[in-house]
Amino acid sequence: MATDTMERMGRAKPHSNEADQHSEGVLARTIEEQTAKLPSDVFLWAAGASIIGSLTLKVMGKDHDALFVGQWAAPFLLLGVYNKIVKVAGSDRAPA
Fold first, then answer.
1. pLDDT reading at 70 higher than 90
2. What one-character-per-residue DSSP string does 17-86 give?
3. 16-20, 29-33, 88-92: which has the minimum mean pLDDT?
4. Axis crossing angle, helix 41-59 with helix 73-89, rounded to the nearest 10
5. Inter-residue contact 66 to 54 (CB < 8 Å)
6. How many whole angstroms from its chain centre is CA 57?
7. 6 in helix, strand or coil?
8. Contact indicator for 86, 35 with CB cutoff of 8 Å
9. Rounded-to-integer distance, Cα 91 and Cα 71, Å
10. How many other β-carbons are positioned within 10 Å of the β-carbon of residue 10?
11. CB-based contacts of 57: which residues, under 8 Å, 6+ apart?
């Protein structure tokens, strides 16, 4: 029974390269090329600076500005994760 299923799967779909079927567009590829040039530390330092800037603004009594600047930390960290993924896995990397 398992052999029958495997044979049907083999006949149903020819072997193909998944990367060819799901490749990124020109814009995504260009963004990834530029993003991969930045060191990952840049995003970590930017998040830290956002937190310190927010704390400084809070101490100065500028509560609304402190909240605005403090909310930048999460996007900077998310961009750092994206940067790391692009460097490690890239969208159109061929399997080794």
1. yes
2. -HHHHT---HHHHHHHHHHTTS-THHHHHHHHHHHHHHHHHHHTT-HHHHHHHHTTHHHHHHHHHHHHHH
3. 16-20
4. 180
5. yes
6. 30
7. helix
8. yes
9. 29
10. 10
11. 63, 65, 66, 69
User: Cα separation of 20 and 26, whole Å?
Assistant: 14
Measuring CA to CA, how many Å separate 53 from each of 20, 39, 40, 41, 56?
A: 45, 22, 20, 18, 5
Average pLDDT of the segment spanning 19-47: 80
- Residues in the chain, total: 96
Which amino acid, one-letter code, is at 9? M
Tokens representing residue 1 in the block: 């029974």
Q: Which two tokens stand for residue 88?
A: 């490690």
CB of 35 closer than 8 Å to CB of 83: yes
